[in-house]
Amino acid sequence: MQILIFLVLCLLNVFIANSQPYFMQNYSWVDVQQAKKILQRDSVYVLGGSFRSLSTELVVSFTANVNIDGTNWNRTDYIGSFFESNVQDLIAYNNNNNYFLVNAAKNLNTETGFSLFFLLNENLEISNSISNEEWQLQQNQTYCASVTYDSLILVGGWIEKLDSDGFNLYFNKISLATGMPLIDTIYTYFNTQYTLNWIQDIATTLDGGAYLLATVNYNVSGTGDIALIKIDSLGNWQWHQVYNLNISSLLSRDVAGSIITTQDGGLVFSGKQSSNSQAFGEIFKLTPQFTTQWHNQVNFHKGEPIGLVEITDQSIVIGGWSMNPNNQKAQGEITKLDEDGNTLWRRVYGGNKNNYFYDLIVQNHDYSGKSGYVLCGRTESDLPPGRADAWLVRLNCMGLLTEPKADFLALPYPSMPHVIAFANQSQYVYPDSIDGGHYILDWGDGSPPLLCGQGYEPCSGSLPTHTYQSAGLFPVTLQAVVCNDTSTLTRAACIDFEPNPQAAFGHEILNYTVLFTNLSQNTYFSQGGYCIWDFGDGSPPVSEEHPVHTYPDNGNFTVTLTVVVCQDTSVYTETIAIAKPVGIPENSPPSEGQGVVVYPNPATNTITFALPEGSKFPSGDLGVLEISLFSPTGQQVLHTTIPAGQTSHSLSVAHLPVGVYFYVVSGADGVVSGDTDNGNNGDNGNNGGTDKGGYGGGAVLARGKVAVVR
Fold first, then answer.
1. Coil, strand, or helix at residue 400?
2. Which of 82, 168, 233, 430 has the smallest number of Cβ neighbours within 10 A?
3. How far apart are CA 325 and CA 345, in angstroms?
């Protein structure tokens, strides 16, 4: 049967104010959407999920590329001509350049379920689609996939029983080259009447076989078990173990989650156990001999542990969801267990409605865990009833959204002039917590640094002191380190030294944007002196040396610059007037028509010079034009030409430093002769009107100012 699929490519621009490496981000384009699987390729996350189409009321599968800062969501939808589909798994192959997307599909004509697989290129476009309706007539669904060492795809799920109601375990091995099954197997070992059995996850083995994690003996009366099954490369059943997690209860239901192989040759798998109105997340660690090494059921209360990752130190990080005991709403949960199954830390992320994590990866394929973790799922919090958004969450190595922030005071002892006391005011370092950070304190005089926190001596609650052996100004530097994140702050310490800072500044007003130039003296910025700007409009203060600030409206604003070196402070204030802009450019001499228009101004990356139709020099029509850009000191920083007849030209200024620049638009050499700019461009009439002094061009069409900001 030929599958007709419509690909819809969508771009959803997501703006994150003050973009941070750790974030929680929602994505929505219809009422209900969710992200089920996540991978990473270079600096992009690849997600697979589904949404309910508003126009057709059908479930549609999608994949998406998202930048690692959560921005630029590029989505591809896979809309079927006669089916709806729901993403169940997404795996990478061919060195992460291709993807295999597993869909649980439903034929809209026959109302029967079938398995649908898409082979995707790096742009998430379908290179081949495989439907097992071509070889399997019984109703079935596939939930999981895994790739073997020889690039074959293993998939598992369920297939309906022929002799009674219920499902049997269903397994395929598929060739990527042909798209056809090499193995198509129905396992009937658990064939009790009216029960449901399905393969939930697969972990491949080096011999070409696999471990299958399945839910078996499941029925509506409330029973169910977890089965671990080993098969060989031909799909032959080798052995199995069944886990009934509450044998004391007649109505105990156990449901399989995920499975991974571990560094020591063992296994870790997850599941959910419920009985007598209680429910627990279950994590099992098996030895290489498949005996239980440890069993943890203290987390994921009434929820499901789903995503599993083993870290290089043999600890296990799990993502899933649990029930918030305060409001009985689902909350995303990430938990870390040590090599013995003890809980190291547990974090939950929720809100006023249900929130779920469905998958988990380590950031940048860094299995030390130091780069942090990324989870995807679904969130309903703060949304109208019936709404759900796809959810992407990136956390640090401690499962938190925070970055370390170094801050301290270097305090002199008046009675001991050569002694400095250190008062640590840093945030989000957690030196006494598991996976927490540490400090490196350099006194700036060549003496050994002080180190404390995780991996070093505990950080004392008292103020450490340091005695300097000579007078002078010393840069004291503190580094706050949490895994791969480092925050550094340097402050000056003065020993028998008076820095005497003198605050001062200048400014240039361009429309509502002001470019400030710090003219202060004795600042010692490179040695720990610092400044604070208050722009007088209620905006937060900044500590840049030469800031650029845009005011929201007209008015008079008192700007305050404070320069601090050691305990010596200097303050300078000035009132600036922001008036309605009178326009840029300043044209001299006036040109016929409307003159040159320069935009945007201020500019960030590109400036465009536009010449309205009919622009002329007083002496004649325009020919080839030159554009020159100069710094305030007169240095030419850009020069280009506009061909005759072209009415606009764009220049890149992305490489230029922030500041004010002067532009000149003029006729190219030899195009227009004579002095047409009132003697300002070099020709004073002594050379027959041919001296091109000054800017080196011909007649000036326009000159003015433009600002470059970031």
1. coil
2. 82
3. 18
CA distance 185 to 170: 6
3-state secondary structure of 395: strand
Instruction: Find the largest Cα–Cα distance for the chain.
Output: 111
Distance CA 297, CA 282 (A): 5
Q: For residue 504, give the 3-state DSSP assignment.
A: coil
CA angle 346, 351, 355 (to 5 degrees): 70
Higher-scoring residue by pLDDT: 74, 709: 74
Convert the pLDDT of each residue in 416-463 to its tens digit: 889 999 999 999 999 989 999 999 999 999 999 999 999 999 987 677
Half-sphere exposure of 198 (CA within 13 A, CB side): 21
Residue 19 pLDDT: 60
Residue 213 banded pLDDT, cuts 50, 70, 90: very high
Percent of the chain with pLDDT over 90: 60
pLDDT in the model for residue 680: 34
DSSP state of 434: T
Phi-psi region of 598 (alpha: psi -120 to 50; beta: other; left: phi over 0): beta
**Strand order across the beta sheet in which 304-310 lies:** 304-310, 316-323, 330-337, 343-349
Is the pLDDT reported for residue 340 higher than 70? yes
State the amino acid at position 284 in one-letter form.
Answer: F
Contact 76, 7 (CB under 8 A): yes
Cα four-point dihedral sign 270, 274, 275, 280 = positive
SS3 527: helix
- The closest of 535, 527, 522 to 568, measured between CA atoms, is 522
Q: 576 burial class (0-12, 13-18, 19+ CB within 10 angstroms)?
A: middle
Q: pTM here?
A: 0.80
Strand, coil or helix: what is 191?
coil
Two structure tokens written together for 144: 């999981």
Name the DSSP class of 525.
Answer: G
Whole-number mean pLDDT of the chain? 86
Contact present, 105 and 113 (Cβ < 8 Å)? yes
* Cα 272 to Cα 303: distance, rounded to the nearest angstrom: 7
Per-residue pLDDT of 354-391, as tens digits, reads: 999 999 999 999 999 999 999 999 999 999 998 999 99
Taking alpha carbons only, the member of 25, 7, 8, 99 closest to residue 66 is 25
